[in-house]
Amino acid sequence: MKATKHVARAIAMLLAGAAPALAQTGAGRAAAAPELTLNAQGYYEAPAANVLVFSNWYDGLFADSKISGVEIIQQGERIATNGDVRLSATPGQWDAIGRLVDRQVDAATGAITVTLEYPDYQWRYRIRSEKRGAAVAIAVLLDQPVPAALAGKAGFNLEFLPAAYFHHSFMADGAGGTFPLYPADAMIRTPERNAASGRAEGPGAEPTAIAHGTRFVLAPEDPARRVTIRSTADVQLFDGRNQAQNGWFVLRSLLPAGKTGRVLEWVVQPNAVPGWLRAPVIAHSQLGYTPQARKVATIELDRSDKRALPARLLRVGEDGTMTPVATAPTTRWGDYLRYSYRQLDFSAVRTPGTYVLEYGQTRTAPFRIAADVYAGAWYPTLDVYFPVAMDHMFVNEGYRVWHGDAHRDDARQAPVNHEHIDLYAQGPTTDTPFKPGEHIPGLAVGGWFDAGDFDIRTQSQYQVIRSLVDSWERWHPTRDTTAVDWSRRRTEIHVPDGTPDLLQQIRHGTLQLIAQFDSVGHAIHGIVEPDVAQYTHLGDASTKTDGLIYDPALKPGEERGGRSGTPDDRWAFTTKASALNYGSIAGLAAASRALAEVDPALSKKARDLAVRTWAEEQSHAPDLYQHGNTTGGPLEAEKFSAAVELLRTTRDPAYAAAVQASWPAMEQRFAFTLRDAVAAIPAMPASYRAAMVPAVRAYAAKMEEATKANPFGVTITTGGWAGSGTVLGQALNAYALHKAFPEIVSADAVFRGAEFLLGHHPGSDISFVSAVGTRSKEVAYGNNRADFSFIAGGVVPGVLVIKPDFPENHEDWPFFWGENEYVIPEGAMWIELAHAIDELSAAKAGK
Q1: How sure is the predictor about 7, in pLDDT bands with cuts at 50, 70 and 90?
Q2: Less Cβ crowding at N or C end of the chain, within 10 Å?
Q3: CA distances from 174 to 99, 169, 224, 475 (A)
Q4: What's the CA gap between 502 and 480, in Å, rounded?
């Protein structure tokens, strides 16, 4: 499949006037490979082939994210990563990783020297790379021998993306083999269980090598994927998927014991196809455009692509005809990251219909120009994504059971002084009446799975509730396609039940927030799996635990009286944090307004709890416990949001005073709190809005300047988690400011944000909202990721910038969580943004 794809690309470019994909000299002899050079960005480069040496490194946020060490980008795709000294043949996400100490680049000699260490073993090592013709020599240098505890464990690994090598072969010292589509290697029983294995019990097991030798050639038959590696020591090939579904193909050489100096050298040569040019990408909205909208397509080009090809807008006829529509010629935008950009402005085209864009031989999928383009853009998110994310419910869709009634055994008190996985931690006390390990009753209700995993992260819960309430109060969408029965703990997708789905989702989140206060008296960090084996669970969440409350008096596997001796219940992290209390106050106060008619009793309980908790927080110094991203946002910001929502709910002057008192501090962090600040305007005196004007002008000017940084007109982040959330947040900021300060802030940024999510972004033209737009994310990091599938309406992080200059979003490998993982706040924000765009589009049309 991959080979066919690249051959098709090469043929298309040849027809378009590109240089031949593979030059030949003589009878079947390949032209001399172009030499690699160390470029100004600090990585090795030849036409169509790059070798990065620790341009990226492990940031420790969620351990191994497959963006570090020695990496290879070949013919436009990153096909290898994690070239480093590792302690396992197929390391998993939580295995030990070397810590970067220093990276030195010698531009004169073309050498890069990186110092790393394993602090627990007080052991440092260096990795030095040097350009050697068309290859890079990578050596491991030791000033001290491999520690005795790591002898036979420490080795140099380089991991290759399985999806890039499916349907391909390899050669090891001339002996051929093929890469397996599915892992099937013999396993060796080991005394210790690898944390990456996904098993919480039983012995350990490690995969055996597929092949070994001192010279490996990967994909010799495919010039676009051929990589040659020559080593001074034996190299073994492993399939990491034998250990875990997210494993890669790994080449590995063990480091010799008792030696120092240059103990290992690999010469790595990624094939550079002469004359190869990356196919143009026409970035545009996969959903389409309203007639009055600005319509700009951005054409992303290989910087070596100097061709002047025609760009056309074609109208699709019902008989298949493609009729050219007159547009202005493309204009050059300039360079961004590693690509060059031209833009085609077809804003003048307003005739409704179906269209495609074309540049040379590249043609887009069809999209519409129509007044109702955005009308249903949020349906998949509310109809499917949020129902599937509902915890503590059986969720059914026609013939399909998404998951059974999960986590009926929630939850056990987490142990004290414990730092856990996924950024959870428990402080020195429980701050509850419960002892570590004791069952906390009442938590097995409501809430959504936070992301591609199954924890309930409280901060996400109240963020989603507030976002859904905003959508309800602004646009009052009464769509009803989901039946929810909490008494039976059952959700049926595509079955109306007479209640607006948005209100049902608000109720579901509210039930979990209230349960936390009822059970322990305050908001908790969240509820998460007790170990990595459960955390890595894929598929049906109801099979993660036995659904029975743990009883330590019973033996493992023993069940009696609705209790179990299996300690698989999730843990609740409960150390008090005032920031979480304030965030939950805001969520509860907002929910009380939305639920007033559909569930008056729950509405009153939420309101009373919010008011009471606010008063309780004012009676003492704040609880300042912080850890990771599970203990709430900045305290003053969370307090401000609580005051704003209480003011909107009660109109009590005391909350107005609290909002006013907090404003000077919020003005200093206006970019992060402006939606709360604007939401308070209707309940505050006119002087409050007037005082906000300087901050609004300063923010608008800063955002306007930011639009010039790239051709897409949005902020593109460069961290280990890609930036769809940032784009959504800034688009919603622009909407809030435009509605409150139309004389200062236009609506343009709202549209740019939506278009970015829907395909107008670097790297590809795919929509980052699954099932929204003609071509959208179909391989994503949901709990069904091992099926290489998606959940309709989920929003992925999107464009991950592999430093220094490579924008990436893989559609062939779902396990890149930094690019492809769904999270619930982004889903709620998409519902908001789609409504906002639909409203603004109608206003432009004069409706």
Answers
A1: very low
A2: C
A3: 36, 12, 20, 66
A4: 8
